[in-house]
């Protein structure tokens, strides 16, 4: 979902894209060198980022250049990072470092033998600066290959304070309270939620938050690895809970049909655009970037969030995504790659992008004052405070044919469920059939 989310964000703000025009498109971006220990070397980095994200990551690369003297070159791969990197390796032109957007892709790279384990110094910094769960997600067969530099907090529900005030409601503490508040909002004249059903990945995020809270982290991990079936009663229960929302036309802007015709940027517009249709939109911290850049909202005042609430007595979930830096064995600049990974593991590197905005770091040593506003600081603190209870986006851990492809697998089946949420057990059976095929493949 992480790469998919980036694609939508890159298209959302004409102003941001205009400012980042020199960093967009297929052309690599270079940063000048200095006269320090890596002077004369060029570090080649590839990743899915484009637009504002690529522009801000370039600031991190520039800081590395200033620190070490190494030149840097970033190439945007687009969302299909695995195919692009594979072709570059086959052509003898492998990047030195790749920013990998999904756990499943990192594991795929490791299984293909493309990756070099991280240095002892980087591993030590991960042990010191990160919650253990981030090391786990960066490791394959006990070896640490991935350093999580950028994270997303995907357990935030964004809302209009004006709409809440008009309805006489406050941010809810439980899922049940959230639906009750939604009814009050609906009675006041707005729909409760804008749901981006046209983008299937948003529906996987809805399911994952409900499932993590309701079933707990152990079951979540088992389902993410397909160690339990999607027909497990815990899955049917979570789908039933989600179906309560999806089946209530008063709660969803435009009803099921309207939701299925709304993409992610459109869902944000329905809450924070010039003609609001809903009071709330569930998605990650990146909602703030669209509300601010495209609709001029002041984050923390015109647009703010509450944590995705606990479901039926469970704990409030914290679902995350993230981008892991990995070193390719076939890269030509191993010394520079190793130094860059050691740099990325420091709070100093994270602070560069934190100050630019549109970024969260899982590095617990990063001073929260590095973030540009109170809302970002609050979001980052929530991610850090969650510690080992954070769980990585489940669909990003699955084979792409099940959890990451438009029109098939989990995306399509949850869109079908949104269209008709009357048979949770049937949807669970369809999900299991698709998952079994994908994991077997």
TrEMBL record:
This is ABC transporter substrate-binding protein. PANTHER family: ARABINOSE-BINDING PROTEIN-RELATED, OSMOPROTECTIVE COMPOUNDS-BINDING PROTEIN GGTB. The keyword Protease does not apply. Keywords: Signal, Transport. It comes from the Bacteria. It comes from Streptomyces lateritius. Residues 1-25 form the signal peptide. Belongs to the bacterial solute-binding protein 1 family. It holds the Pfam family SBP_bac_1.
């Amino acid at each position: 979902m992480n790469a998919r989310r980036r694609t939508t964000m890159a298209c959302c703000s004409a102003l941001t894209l205009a400012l980042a025009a020199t960093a967009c498109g297929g052309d690599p971006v270079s940063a000048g060198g200095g006269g320090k220990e890596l002077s004369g070397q060029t570090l080649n980095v590839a990743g899915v980022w484009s637009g504002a994200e690529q522009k801000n990551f370039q600031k991190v690369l520039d800081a590395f250049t200033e620190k070490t003297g190494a030149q840097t070159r970033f190439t945007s791969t687009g969302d299909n990072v695995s195919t692009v990197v594979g072709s570059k390796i086959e052509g003898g032109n492998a990047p030195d470092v790749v920013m990998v957007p999904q756990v499943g892709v990192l594991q795929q790279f490791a299984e293909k033998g493309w990756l070099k384990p991280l240095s002892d110094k980087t591993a030590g910094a991960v042990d010191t600066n990160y919650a253990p769960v981030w090391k786990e997600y960066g490791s394959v067969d006990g070896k640490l290959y991935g350093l999580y530099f950028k994270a997303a907090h995907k357990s935030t529900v964004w809302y209009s304070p004006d709409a809440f005030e008009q309805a006489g409601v406050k941010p809810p503490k439980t899922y049940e309270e959230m639906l009750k508040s939604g009814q009050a909002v609906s009675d006041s004249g707005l729909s409760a939620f804008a749901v981006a059903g046209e983008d299937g990945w948003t529906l996987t995020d809805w399911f994952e938050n409900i499932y993590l809270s309701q079933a707990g982290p152990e079951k979540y991990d088992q389902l993410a690895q397909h160690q339990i079936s999607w027909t497990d009663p815990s899955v049917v229960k979570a789908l039933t809970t989600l179906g309560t929302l999806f089946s209530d036309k008063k709660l969803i802007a435009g009803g099921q049909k309207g939701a299925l015709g709304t993409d992610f940027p459109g869902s944000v517009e329905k809450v924070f655009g010039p003609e609001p249709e809903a009071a709330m939109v569930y998605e990650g911290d990146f909602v703030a970037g669209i509300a601010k850049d495209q609709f001029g909202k002041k984050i923390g005042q015109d647009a703010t969030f509450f944590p995705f609430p606990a479901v039926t007595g469970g704990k409030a979930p914290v679902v995350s995504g993230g981008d892991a830096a990995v070193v390719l064995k076939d890269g030509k600049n191993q010394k520079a790659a190793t130094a860059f990974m050691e740099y990325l593991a420091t709070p100093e590197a994270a602070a560069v992008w934190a100050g630019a905005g549109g970024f969260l770091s899982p590095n617990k040593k990063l001073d929260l004052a590095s973030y540009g506003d109170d809302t970002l600081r609050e979001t980052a603190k929530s991610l850090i405070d969650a510690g080992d209870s954070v769980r990585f986006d489940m669909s990003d851990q699955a084979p792409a044919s099940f959890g990451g492809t438009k029109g098939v697998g989990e995306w399509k089946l949850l869109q079908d469920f949104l269209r008709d949420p009357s048979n949770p057990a049937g949807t669970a059976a369809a999900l299991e059939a698709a998952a079994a095929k994908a994991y077997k493949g």
